[in-house]
Amino acid sequence: MERTREDLAWAAGLFEGEGCLTLSQRPRNAPIVTMGMMDKDVVDRFEVIMGFGKRYQEAERYGPGKIFYRWQTTTFEHAQATIAMLWPWLGERRKQRAAEILAAPRTPHYRTRTHCKHGHLYDEENTKHWVGSPGTRYCRQCAAHRSRVSYAKKKREMKEV
Ligand SMILES: [Zn+2]
Fold first, then answer.
1. Ligand 1 centroid to 156 CA: how many Å?
2. Ligand 1 mean position to 143 CA, how many Å?
3. Does residue 132 have a pLDDT over 80?
4. Is the pTM above the cut of 0.70?
5. Which of 97, 125, 136, 155 has its CA 20 to 30 A from that of 44?
């Protein structure tokens, strides 16, 4: 679908009223953009104009038989794209919030991290993979350090007895 300026202005007006810009806890500070309401056709049109995002339905949120329809995106690229498309029509408070969530310091996705949390490089030599849990990595240097610490502790305890 070709997005027209009218489409984007319409979407921005809707977002100004019903949209929400937040940050996730895990992974830390991933931008979450949502737009939801009880009119399915309106949320449908918003989704078509954006051209990405996921849809959710929450039954009973506002009373029996009522369904709340929600469009949501949780990737940085899509948050950035949404904000860029709607930007010219957003109010000052929204613009400020949008800039804030895009600038929040994020933790890179676990699998794309190049270093462990103690700064050791995940190279061939230092990376151990869990058998039975694909994609899970662990740092050999940290593991070796942990076992040294616990061995030393055990040794101390044995002497004290
Ligand atoms: Zn490490």
1. 25
2. 7
3. no
4. no
5. 97
Measure 142 CA to ligand 1 centroid, in angstroms.
4
Q: Which CATH superfamily is domain 5-107 in?
A: Homing endonucleases (3.10.28.10)
Phi-psi region of 64 (alpha: psi -120 to 50; beta: other; left: phi over 0): beta
CA atoms of 142 and 113, how far apart (whole Å): 16
CB within 8 Å of 77: residues ≥ 6 apart: none
What pLDDT is stored for residue 26 in this prediction? 77
β pairing state of 19-23 and 127-129: unpaired
Residues with CB under 5 A from ligand 1 (ion): 116, 118, 120, 139, 141-142
**pLDDT, tens digit, 9 for 90 and up, residues 73-109:** 988 899 999 999 999 999 999 999 999 999 988 766 6
Residue reference for tokens 């679908």: 1
pLDDT at 1 over 80: no
As a whole number, mean pLDDT of residues 113-125 equals 88
